[in-house]
Amino acid sequence: MKRTFGAICLFLLACLGLQAAQVDTLFVNSPSMNKDIKIVSIQPDKALKGEKCPVIYLLHGYSGNEKSWLEFRPDLPQIADRDGIIFVCPDGGFDNWYWDSPIVKESRYETFVSQELINYVDKNFATLPDRSKRAITGLSMGGHGAMWLAIRHQDVFGAVGSTSGGLDIRPFPNNWNMKKYLGVRDENLEVWNNHTVINQLDRLKDGDLAIIIDCGVDDFFFGVNKAVHERLLQQKVGHDFIARPGAHNGAYWKNSIGYQIKFFKKFFEKE
Questions:
Q1: Residue 186, Cβ neighbours under 10 Å: how many?
Q2: pLDDT by residue (tens digit) across 19-40?
Q3: CA 9 to CA 1: how far, in whole Å?
Q4: Domain range annotation of the chain
Q5: What is the pLDDT of residues 113-148, one digit of tens each?
Q6: What gap in Å lies between CA 205 and CA 202, rounded to an integer?
Q7: Fewest CB within 10 A of the end CB: N or C in the chain?
Q8: For 21-268, which CATH superfamily applies?
């Protein structure tokens, strides 16, 4: 009887294993930066079997890395299987803010994410290689990065999110090493003005992107998120804006990303 029970358990585990998302840490070459960059990829079972799936790119925050999102949400593989979505989490550098820096020429994370990484993923994974099946979001520095990239590369991304994003960097001139990549703010005002998300919003018309922005009301970035929301309202650009109790921490991001994934899934399912 014990042998039979054990055999049944092994059989069930084997079946579950055959239907599990695959998590890999890979190196993707960046010709623009002349180096290999780590990514974590999470492919659902259906993609591993060759069925083409949409992709969500998840960008980490300041001091994070390619493992950050999986640490906040260890259930991402289960979500990938449930929703049939590929997740790609690149290492965006400790403090690079996802720009092509005008000062540090070897820091070209805008080019890497919007071109080199996209090309690698579409070539090597079973993706649906169209902006209508591609979304990007991130937390804090990554929220800025996601909005920055999606607004500037609307041919690549069809949907964008930000959670606790630094959507206007100018009130924080001495924080998070930004002056390393843009110069001292008061000596480089034009550069700072040109590299903040809030000043990219004029590129948007209603319907250009599916947009979701959320931020905790106790977050030090809440004011700049609210300002972006108000600017989008003035421009009559449709978007979801969520303000809920919470601060700038992992508990908030762990919760908020679930809502954003649902938002993107609905976008992917549009005809």
A1: 9
A2: 599 999 999 999 999 999 999 9
A3: 12
A4: 21-268
A5: 999 999 999 999 999 999 999 999 999 999 999 999
A6: 8
A7: C
A8: Alpha/Beta hydrolase fold, catalytic domain (3.40.50.1820)
